[in-house]
Amino acid sequence: MVNSIYAALPTTVFAEMSGLAAQLGAINLGQGFPDDPGPEAVRAKAADAVLNGHNQYPPMTGLPELRQAVAAHYNATQRLDLDWVGEVTITSGATEALAVSFLGLIEPGDEVIVFQPFYDSYLPVIRRAGGVPKLVTLQPPHWRFDRAMLEAAFSPRTRLVVLNNPMNPTGVVLPDEDLALLAEFCVAHDAVVVCDEVWEKVVFSGARHRPLMSYPGMRERTVKIGSAGKMFGLTGWKVGYLCAAPALTHALTRAHQFLTFTTPPNLQTAVAWGLENAHDWFREMPAGLERSRDRMAEGLRREGFSVLPADGTYFLCLDLTTSGIEEGDRDFCLRAVKEAGVAAIPVSAFYETEPVTSIVRLCFSKADDTLDEGVRRLARARDLSRAATA
After folding, report:
1. Rounded to an integer, what distance in angstroms lies between the CA atom of residue 267 and that of residue 260?
2. Cα(249)–Cα(218) distance, rounded to whole angstroms?
């Protein structure tokens, strides 16, 4: 016998497209990892900690030095006053932090509001915890929600809300008025919000990330999730942070102790050092990614593609319909990787119901030559698509 929730899941679209890219030798603009190796000083600290540091079990809630560094970093950058002892927990990546949040906070039958498009790990774990997803469907090009949408989603059974901001796959950084509106509903319905804020440091000029925890009434009802992998462009490190009030943290740590229990101590040591010392990285990294975003967007527009705004993350989206492409996003992406040698992600894969089927997500955290060649191959895919549907 197997669990029906997990047994019914297909292979993720990320694994599918990356597998095809590797098999066919295609450029991979699908999966979200950077070409840049990450800050050398932080990597050197991790290497030194393996050779000269402690390599046995660290504390279940994380090394004190890292928990202190997380609290200090968020105090300095987001004006959050976190008690590192009772409100900060280190996890093996943000995906584990999400699982901890869902398993630790959901009772069977609780309704959980999720905005789609969404990160694909949300729904399986919510359902495994006994939660009932209530989906709010966002639409391009702005991907925003309003009062009517929230009124339709919230009910007396609403226990949890899941918010990804900055948002993958859309690249949207939600404005203050949207966040204030959501906070109003959460307070009125006594709901807890799990805030997936892993892209908080990857925000570009003209936009500002503000944590939902900072809004009136949200301090005691918000779980803030961060990711060192995203902060430092070290996606394979899998070091995450859970920040929440003590009453929530008590339940979260009880779930965490029976999942991964702890996280490699050398990586924790290096991340703690980075949060305290890598100030140049936090200034230069988003500026470099913004240049890459602009390079890709300008190249796509020169080729006649319609590109949606992107204020954060590693991703921008193009609109097939307004680019004169009749194929749906999945068919176009399969044609692109198989016939034109470039992998992308269909945004319809981020929906469970009522999918938008005209949007394709591209990762721009790549070298200039890769971006330029990727644009050329996407133009080739467009031409092939038009010929096939003529």
Report:
1. 15
2. 15
Structure tokens at 90: 């280190």
Please give the Cα distance from 69 to 188 (Å, whole number): 33
pTM equals: 0.95
Query: Using CA atoms, how far apart are residues 119 and 122, in angstroms rounded to an integer?
Result: 6
| Domain harbouring 348, CATH code | 3.90.1150.10
The 10 Å Cβ neighbour count of residue 178 is: 17
Helix runs in 278-328, H state only:
279-302
d(CA 315, CA 310): 7
Residue 48: CB atoms within 10 Å: 14
DSSP-based three-state secondary structure for 90: strand
CATH number assigned to the domain comprising residue 204 = 3.40.640.10
Q: For 317, how many CA atoms within 13 A lie in the half-sphere containing its CB?
A: 33
The whole-angstrom separation of Cα 227 and Cα 223 is 13
1 pLDDT more than 80: no
Please check whether residue 384 is in contact with residue 335, taking contact to mean a CB–CB distance below 8 angstroms: yes
Instruction: Classify 135 as helix, strand or coil.
Output: strand
Task: Give the full edge-to-edge strand order of the sheet including 306-307.
Answer: 306-307, 315-319, 359-363, 345-346
Range of the domain at 249: 41-277
User: Which H or E run includes 158?
Assistant: strand 158-164
Q: 260, 277, 294: which is the final residue of a domain? A: 277
Measure the CA–CA gap between 270 and 262, rounded to whole angstroms.
15
pLDDT digits (tens, 9 = 90+) for 56-79: 999 999 999 999 999 999 999 999
Is there a contact between 34 and 366 (Cβ–Cβ < 8 Å)? yes
